Amino acid sequence: MSSSLFEEIQTPPSGDIAVRRVTINVNGEPRTADIEPRLLLADLLRQGLQLTGTHKGCDTTNCGACTVLFDGRPIKSCTMLAAQAEGHDVQTVEGLGTASELDPIQEGFKQEHGLQCGFCTPGMMMSAKALLERNPNPTEDEIRWALSGNLCRCTGYQNIVKAVLWAAEKMRSN
Amino acid sequence: MSLDEIKIGGMGASRRRVEDNRFIRGKGNYVDDIVLPGMLHMEILRSPVAHARIKSIDTSAAWDMPGVRLVLTGEMMAARNLAWMPTLSYDTAAVLATDKVRERPAKAAPGNVDSRGRCNERKLSIYATGGGIHPARQGTPALFLHDAPDGHLCRADVSGAVGLSEGDRHIVDPVSGESMSLGARRLRRPVDSGSVAEVPEEAYLRTLPARACRRERRHLAPP
Amino acid sequence: MYPSRFKYEAPKTLEEAIALLDAGKGEAKVLAGGQSLVPMLKLRFAFPDQIVDINNIPDLGYHRFDSDGTLRIGALCRHEDLEHSKVIASGQPTIAAAAPLVADPIVRTRGTFVGSVCHADPQGDWAAAMIALGGHMIVQGPKGKRTIEMKDFVLGPYTNAMNYNEIAIEAVIPAPKGVARGGYLKLERRVGDFATASVAVSLDMDGGKVLRAGIALAGVGGKTIDANEEASFLVGKELSPSNIVKVAELVAAKAEPRTDHRGSSEYKRQIVRTFVTRILTAQSAQKVA
User: Fold this and answer.
1) Which architecture does CATH list for A104-173?
2) Fold (CATH) for B33-215
3) Which of A95, A139, C143, C146 is 20 to 30 A away from residue A35, measured at CA?
4) Interface confidence: ipTM more than 0.95
5) pLDDT value, residue C228
6) CA C278 to chain CA mean position, Å
7) In a domain, C167, yes or no
8) Partner residue opposite C2 with nearest CB, options B120, B139, B209
């Protein structure tokens, strides 16, 4: 499946616009797009692929609402060029869980009221997923430290920590 | 609290959250996610200087770019008596700058375009020329108050408000009494079309931190 | 926010990358972690004609101690590689202390040590660490490699001594004369904020005696403050409380803090004094190996 974000330009403002074709493995599926190199990964995900679960909160690399997993590691997708993701694996919140089953992290956020407005939540969950993959039994301090790149304005973080603890326990008992 | 009230989910009862199912799947519909048919994207051009008199705004390059539907200036709004609006803070603020750019977010002109991708190009091809520059130092809550009899005024209508001369290199912070030197910056913003918005040596591009908002009131035009 | 247009290449070899930089005549920028460059591109504070993405060049992500104790950090070694490294934890305490304090955990998965030093941010943690450690950078250009001592590397804010056609390929921290000791403390109002003040301390110790001392400060001046000369007061001495107090005073005087919304200059100077004292006291309290 391919999408071209700049197809509709009939007369480019100045000279030719260089466009490159990238194929990125998004949530397990190869996705191809013809993009300008300056396109940010967050914009490719949100506008090109219509995966709007990844949010742009600050656009200054501060808030972490745009966090996705890049080859399993959390990155701020607003601070990566989409072209850099060529050939790599990107997992977004839409890739958590399946059609019939929630990821334990998603369940944890639901059970422990780990969200209010929900804007920071996808970023929080992706960071939490990366944490629990490396550290299946984190302490509260370790959770707070690992999530310190994700900001939340609503919850005060208490229930987010509880949600991750809940998820960790669920994953250990599975 | 009667048992019935709780049973029917009335006052005092817990409410189950129904929105989480969408949010945890990334299916929230936040403002930036909304896509409506025929929707336009707006970009706001902010002044490259904190305080200046607008001599002219040249929007021709912006209108020429493909996809642009409208380039709106303060002048166009003033013609419709919409350039100044009351705010929630019981004062009146400029929606778009008409005569002067002030330190409050001083917007010059938004450009409406039909695709997000080209929005930012519009922003940089509109440039305002102005005179009478007040350098502002980032992080300094107190600004523009300095004895400079020939200085440019911040508020021509308020007696006692003074400003800085072009050559001033120091301001005194009325809060701490500390004397601070001002920097000068040249800002180059190249644009694909080759036009460059260049500001004079004395201009210093900074925006005020939120804490300064109380002092910002001084610089709003009278209603 | 959105970068201006640029050409983009992702070469697979160092030679290709250098050739691209050379051909770019100063209008090409290296992209490694991108955690400083991409935000600048988005704000259009930087608008290079070309981006040279070096992330596909193999064998640059290493960090290792040579048999002689020299620490070498490759161009693509990420902050988190150092943060989670066992050899760093046991062998290089200044870096081990600073690594978890750089930016935030998500930025640390991409940002690189070498890139951070090259970026020469006056608030940068790694530049301060490198100065305190007395390290040097190895850069490679069309004519080959050369070494730049850290004290000559940073010319000013965001300006380093490299030519436009050079890539920094390795940061080198020389083997300690004795046992590497030290630490790094950073006061920030929240994770990811600029430092209110931070202090890097590096010591080479023999028993209780200091063989070499280096101290550098970030966040308390227009650039990284090199306080190595003040730190050298400790050479040949023990870490006694009175010596610690003296050097803390010397270093605090070297700082050039400015009053801003993070605090007054007196406050920041006091932080410097406190952190130097704290780090040095912790060293003297440790059982010597």
Assistant:
1) Orthogonal Bundle (1.10)
2) Aldehyde Oxidoreductase; domain 3 (3.90.1170)
3) A95
4) no
5) 97
6) 21
7) yes
8) B120
